[in-house]
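User: Run a structure prediction on this.
Assistant: Running it now.
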Amino acid sequence: MVEKLTVIFFIVLCLLLGFYLILSPWDALFGRWSENYLLVFLSDRSGFPSIRTTVASNWVRGAVTGIGVLNLVIAFWEAAHFKQSVAMLQGKDPNADKK
């Protein structure tokens, strides 16, 4: 039972993180991407204001969105291979049913 819950929580985590990483760079719902408190603090403390402009660029935003898409792909792959993942966590051979 613990193994099933572990896989389910991992799938949910990947889904939520994927959706957040896809939406957060482009949507103002989570606050402006370039006005993040931690980002402003780091750029002011380090003396490199170019950090802020780099993170605000569309290239970085696209890369973060790509990581979000990758998280969604991992979540759907894990959901499709649920029984294999549970069997591996239980220490069983996941390919034993196929032989």
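Residues 28 and 56 are 13 Å apart (CA to CA).
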